[in-house]
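Colleagues,

For the teaching module next term, I've prepared a clean inverse folding example: a structure given as tokens, and then the sequence designed for it. I'd like students to try predicting residues themselves before seeing the answer, so please don't circulate the second half yet.
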């Protein structure tokens, strides 16, 4: 078997070559003047949207299963405000069952084009029925049908079985609106901590962590 192609650690010359670009993207020290993390996150997300090739709102959602083992997958952030970070999925999926049993999660955003990362940890709560209905109604019709057809995370014998389920549900709702299945909902991660990371030369990165303190935030700079 061929050895995996893993890039070596950059040389001093490579660091020097990239220094100007890194400084231009991540050299603004005013990041440390912030008193809360959500506004800064929204700014970084907007910058990512202008630079990432696709899915700038993609994030790794990490949960814990019944055996205490960590579990992780990529999902899409659908809303963020002072209440937290919101995403949607099937309540009966692996992630849904894990969140029901242990309503805590970690989120990781990585924007390679900007050489930045954000980590979020916090408690998780389901969104309201009204929020779930409103977001579900905004999805493409085919995606709404798919939510009815898919037994998410269950074993599937063939692709043909999935396509047959989609065809069956498409026929069932033909000419009608596709309502939200009860098992499909959203969750909001209420952050207890939010850490911002940005690349700097020679692995001397910047890290800034916000910790919730009642209704306010404390902040702390971390060693790289």
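(Answer key — instructors only)
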């Amino acid at each position: 078997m061929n050895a995996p192609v893993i890039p070596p650690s950059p040389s001093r010359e490579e660091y020097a070559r990239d220094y100007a670009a890194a400084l231009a993207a991540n050299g603004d020290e005013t990041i440390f003047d912030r008193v809360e993390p959500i506004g800064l996150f929204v700014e970084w997300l907007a910058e990512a949207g202008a630079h990432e090739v696709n899915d700038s709102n993609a994030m790794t959602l990490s949960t814990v299963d019944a055996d205490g083992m960590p579990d992780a997958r990529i999902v899409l952030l659908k809303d963020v405000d002072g209440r937290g970070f919101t995403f949607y999925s099937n309540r009966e999926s692996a992630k849904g069952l894990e969140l029901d049993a242990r309503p805590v999660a970690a989120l990781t955003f990585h924007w390679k084009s900007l050489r930045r990362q954000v980590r979020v940890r916090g408690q998780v709560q389901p969104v309201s029925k009204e929020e779930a209905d409103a977001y579900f109604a905004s999805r493409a019709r085919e995606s709404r049908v798919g939510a009815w057809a898919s037994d998410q995370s269950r074993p599937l014998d063939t692709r043909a079985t999935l396509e047959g389920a989609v065809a069956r549900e498409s026929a069932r709702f033909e000419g009608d609106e596709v309502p939200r299945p009860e098992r499909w909902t959203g969750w909001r991660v209420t952050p207890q901590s939010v850490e911002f990371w940005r690349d700097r030369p020679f692995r001397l990165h910047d890290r800034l962590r916000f910790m919730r303190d009642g209704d306010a935030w404390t902040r702390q700079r971390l060693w790289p």
